[in-house]
Every structure is written in structure tokens, then in C-alpha cells.
Amino acid sequence: MTLLDVSGLTVRAAGGRALVTDLSFTVDSGERLGLIGESGSGKSLTTLAVLGLLPEGMTVTGSAVLAGTQVVGAPEKRLTALRGRDAAVVFQEPLTALDPLMRVGRQIAGPLARRTGLKGRALRDATYEALDRVRLPEPGRVARAFPHEISGGQRQRVALAAALACEPALLIADEPTTALDVSVQAEMLDLIDTLVREREMAVLFVSHDLAVVAKVTDRVLVMKDGRAVEEGAVRDIVGAPREAYTRDLVASARALESALDLRSAP
Amino acid sequence: MTTPTDLLATEPRAKRPTRRTSVTLTAGAVLTGLVALLALVSLLWLPYGPDDTSGGRLAGPGDGHLLGTDKLGRDLFTQLMTGSRIAFGAGLGSVAVAALIGVTLGVLAAFAQGWLDDTLSAFLDILIAFPTLLLAMLVVAARSATLGSAVLAIGLAQSAVVARLVRILVKRVLTQDYITAARTSGTSWPRTVAGHVLPNIWPTLVVNLALQFGLAVLAEAGLSYLGLGAPPPNASWGRMLQEAQATFTTAPAGALAPGVLLVLLVIGVNLIADGLRDVLDPAGRGRRS
């Protein structure tokens, strides 16, 4: 079943310049699609457009159907009902994506209460459970902390917990490991991988890092300058890239890896 | 194996973010507190009745009258005490009006787009440019010279300043990632404003409201001085100043006493505003751990 069907999606800036041009792709329920490209290639705008959350002044044309609802041109009220339930987002920078003046627990309890209708003690227990599930030690302490009182890796776990608290059909992960220390990145990827598999959630994973995308997704869409360049299974793309840009991406990813191999060789 | 609930039971109370105490805040609180105490005591007890003229005209300090009497023979200290009540009433009332109208208008203006945004901004600019005194005279002409009219006029004038500040603050907060993040999880606009926007503009807003309180006290004194504030026999500090003007050389206490209290109160709330800025500043509070 098709969960997200984007076709002919075009996003224009206030001046009329096209930032995303005629983009088409689909994500089936339970499927994991990687969106890869350099910064400025329109990846993040695509994810925001899919939820009807583009910054003021930008215009969208084309079609983006999320769980049967046409997002482009939909009224705000219908979009609010859609967001969270059908798709939730984990952003790149957890420090700015969490409200600096609200305790972490409340930021997870909010969407949790909206979905489940829980209150009081039950809601608090569910919040602790959500924190526990993203492997945060001492959920009780973390829940009462403000975002600036916990580490970057912990913050991203909190953001992930908040997104998962919505139990969305589609999890959109927008460069969720880019702002993290390298040592924490792998853990975070594993965590997303495990939690998403458990729930059979569909994933739209946005990244500029081919290695990261290859780890989490089955299929990849390569973007450049707002256009889709190439699409295919991860194995095919990495093994036999057809387009010049994709070859560059694969080559640079390999170059990094082989540099590591050379260093570690005796 | 510890479950989340066990942790809650054994853990000491949540650590609040370190509240830095501020010398400025304390000094301001003490000054303001002294005048507030005067106002509170005046509700329960006064040295003389407000209309008691038994002390004789323009009696000097001492002899049963701490600060002497005015030209009608009323006790000055008694008038000072009832005046402090009016000062606080004017300050709190004006700020309440300004906050209510200002925050509502400011949030609406922040969300308004195109011509509506332009119109609202122009309206606020005109209201700010409009002299408070003229506005007060209009309100008094439309109603009558009462404390309520003065408070309404001052509050209206200040609401424009508050609205413009709130509009800018809200616009800035709305561009933040955490607002987008809240929206992606399906938070409706009203909930986003109540839960994320208002709390995040609050530190800056409350400092400004404290400053507005001081300005409102001064404005009320000015209006009363001109006879546009609380009508006699209510002893507003402004009216006390005006009445003592003619006899300033022979009985300076009548003008000095309300003048000094006015200055103390305004300095007090300004210090509180400064102190609050230091304590509440999110930039100073965050990023330090």
C-alpha cells in the first residue's frame, strides 16, 4: 500500500526560483526510502512540503498524497490532524528543535497525550516508558531536565522519542545524526533502525551521507539541484551508479572508507 | 531492575535550573516593598482620617503629625499612605490593561500577513506617537476624571508599546525550529502559541511590563497633577505635589514627601526590571551546563 505518493512536486521561493523541480517518488507502508544529496539540493524542503510546513512565501505545485490525503493546498485544520499521526519528523539539530524553556518530559507528554488521551500518572509513566525505549538512562531525571541540561546525543534521543510518541505511519528523519558526535552517530542509527523495524514504520531518511543512508534504508533517491537524479535499490546504486553525480557520491564515500582501511592496516 | 517509577520514588526533588540571585533585584524589591507595605497598612490603619483637619493649617513636622499638615490641616503622612495605594492601583491597573490589549494585539499582528500586518503596524505606530496626555484628556472628556479613566488612558497608550514588542518577539520565536517541530507533531496553532510561543517571549515581556509599571506610576502622578487623575479628596501623590506648590517655600515637606516616595517607587521597580532581566535571560541561563 502506498503511504506517501509525491508526484510532480515543485517548490518555488518567493522570487519564483524553483528550489525543488518536478519531483516524484513513493514510499510504501513499512518501506524505507533514503533521500540523498548535497546541502541545498532541496531534500529538507521536500520533507517540509510533504507536511505542508514550508516557510512563508514559498509556493508548492504538484501533488503530495500522504495516507490518502492531498497535502498540497489542504486547509490548516486537516494538516494538523495529519501531522504526527501519519508522519512525524526528527530534525537535524536537536538543541534548536526542542523548546528551550520546556522540560523534556512535557515535550514528549504533549504528543503522547494527544494520541492516547492519557492523563496524570498514566501519562507520566508512558512518558518515562517512551524515554526508556530510546535507551535514555534515568528517564525520571531526564524528563525533568531542560534541553540545555542534557547532552547532544541525549537531546536527539528525546527528539526521537517525541516523534515516536506520535506512533506515525511514516517517520521522517532529516539528517538526524549530522549534528552528533561521530561516536554517538552509530548508536543513534542503530536505535532508529531497531525501533522502526519493531514498529514496521515507513521511513523517509534524509542525509548527505551515502554510508548513513545505506545503513538504514532499502531504496535511495539521489537529488541534485532540486531534481531527482537517480533512484534505485541501495545495492544497485552503490554497486553500479548510472549517473555522474551518483558516481561522485559513491566514489567519495569509498575514498573515505579506504582512507580508514589504509590507516588501520598494519 | 529499576523501573521508571522506582526512580521517581527514591529521587530527591527535581533540581530547578539554578536561579541566580541578583543584587539589583533584591534592592528593587526592598524599595518597592517599603512603598507596598505603606499601601497595605493604609488599608487597615491610618494615623488620621483622610478628612480630619484638626491639626491646623500647615503645621510643621512633629507634634503628633509625623510630616506636618497641608494647607487645609490634613495630616501629610496619612495622605502619603492613601497616595501609595493610588500609585500601586494605577501601576498595576495600567499594566494589566496594557498587557491584556498589548499581548492580544501583538500576537494577532505577528500572525497577520500582507496589508493586515501593515495596517496593524501603522495603527500601533500612530498610537505610540500620540501623546499620552492628549489621549488621557480624550478619555477623561469621554468619561470623567476618575482614577479609572487615568488607568484606562495610560494602559491604552502603553498597550501600543507592548503590542509592538510582542509582535517582534512572536515573529522571532515563530522562525525557531522548535515551533516547526511542534507543528510537525500535529500541535494546533492555539496550542503552539499557548505552550511554546508565550512562555518563550515571557522573560523579555515581563521585564518590559515592570518598566511600564514605573512609567504608569509617573504618568498617573502627572495626570493627577493636572487634575485629570483621581478626583479630590483622594490624595494622589501628583495632586499633593500640585497643592503644595504654592506653599513650597514655607512648608517644603508637603512637596518633598510625595516627590521622594514617587522617586523611590519608580527606582524600585526599575531595579526590579533590571534584576529580572539578569535572572530570566534565557541566554544566560542556558548553555552553561
UniProtKB/TrEMBL annotation, chain A:
GO terms for molecular function: ATP binding; ATP hydrolysis activity. GO terms for cellular component: plasma membrane. Its main location: membrane. InterPro entries: AAA+_ATPase, ABC_Ni/Peptide_Import, ABC_transporter-like_ATP-bd, ABC_transporter-like_CS, P-loop_NTPase. It holds the Pfam family ABC_tran. The keyword Transmembrane helix does not apply. Keywords: ATP-binding, Cell membrane, Membrane, Nucleotide-binding, Transport. The keyword Acyltransferase does not apply. It is found in: Cell membrane. It is a peripheral membrane protein. Residues 4-250 form the ABC transporter domain. PANTHER family: DIPEPTIDE TRANSPORT ATP-BINDING PROTEIN DPPD, OLIGOPEPTIDE TRANSPORT ATP-BINDING PROTEIN APPD. Belongs to the ABC transporter superfamily. This is ABC transporter domain-containing protein. It comes from Streptomyces griseoviridis. The lineage of its organism: Bacteria, Bacillati, Actinomycetota, Actinomycetes, Kitasatosporales.
From TrEMBL, chain B:
It is a multi-pass membrane protein. Its main location: membrane. It is found in: Cell membrane. GO terms for cellular component: plasma membrane. The chain crosses the membrane at residues 23-48, 86-111, 123-141, 147-166, 205-228, 248-273. Residues 84-273 form the ABC transmembrane type-1 domain. It comes from the Bacteria. Keywords: Cell membrane, Membrane, Transmembrane, Transmembrane helix, Transport. One of its GO terms (biological process) is transmembrane transport. The keyword Transmembrane applies. Belongs to the binding-protein-dependent transport system permease family. This is ABC transporter permease.
